[in-house]
Amino acid sequence: MAERKRRKLKLLAETINLDEKKATEEEESLKLQTWADLPVELLELILCHLTLEDNVRASAVCRRWHKVAVAVRVVNQSPWLMYFPKYGSLYEFYDPAERKTYSLELPELQGSRACYTKDGWLLLYRPRNHGVFFFNPFNRHMIKLPRFELTYQMVAFSDAPTSDLCVVFTIKHISPTVVAISTCRPGDSEWTTVNHQNRLPFVSSIWNKMVFCSGMFYCLSLTGWLGVYDPLLRAWSVLHVPPPRCPENFFAKNWWKGKFMAEHDGDILVIYTCNTETPIIFKLDHSEMVWEEMQTLNGVTLFASFLSSHSRTELPGAMRNIVYFSKVRFFGKRCISYSVDDRRYYPRKECHDWGEQDPFENIWIEPPRDASLN
């Protein structure tokens, strides 16, 4: 009996010693762990909130941190959605990254409507007196152009009006085989208008489907044909590229409005949407001269609106592979978007009838870095 009791006590002592040894080893293991051993998910959560300068410093800690820091690095700033009021001169700017709205009094813009934006500059038109001018709402600089009647033609410009390379381009069809192209540069005394013949039919869209890419203006017609204008050679042509192919259910009410065109790194992108159908994104294959459907945006973010659309890379991780549309819901707290990765809209049950929206209501504009209108 006594022997059995001694064996139990010995076994208990050995068990206690073993537990203490394991606890000591675990404690020593924890002491040996460093910040470099943080889980990837936790690292991403921390690093995505750093400024660009701090992100670069963090990337120098080790290879593991470098990989995560680069993946979440925010170099660019997203465009803001600028709203044009029906009355008064109080303009609102919605920041989709921060989900904040700013207000700014701009009496200089009263009676005007937006035509296009690029590099933080607006191209505007006053229907009352046919005035055309550039305006930067963030520094309030204005550059006037000669008067010109802009009715429903497509309008765009190549570079900021402070650049010697800036050219303003407009196009409208006279007939299916003839287009009128007008151009002007800051400092010109008048517009130059030339009628061009094209072999393929080209009926210009009512709203802008136009981008400037690699020195050329690309224009998407109402039925999806692609026209190209070279401002240096003053040459116009309609490419032999069949229009993007969409399912039949895309050709419903207001089908012609749910099309958006953007440029990214030399690529021409077109977004086709219709009501609650899943958007289709096409990219022009210049070598084969065909539109190919994109299954991924490879980290690119698109900002689509009737008058001009933009692309961005290296935005916050949650904004990548997303198409943001020019509609804000929930009292200005959320921009309607489509996730290419998730294959769904956010919010899911939102209606997307583009015919209900005024094309001149808002436009995406690029704010200067660290812009604040508070």
Automatic annotation (TrEMBL):
Q: Which Pfam families match?
A: Beta-prop_KIB1-4, F-box-like
F-box domain sequence ranges: 32-83
Q: Entry's InterPro entries?
A: F-box-like_dom_sf, F-box_dom, KIB1-4_b-propeller
The organism's place on the tree of life at top rank: Eukaryota
Q: Which SUPFAM superfamilies match?
A: F-box domain (SSF81383)
- Name the CDD domains for this protein: F-box_SF (cd09917)
Q: What is this protein called?
A: F-box domain-containing protein
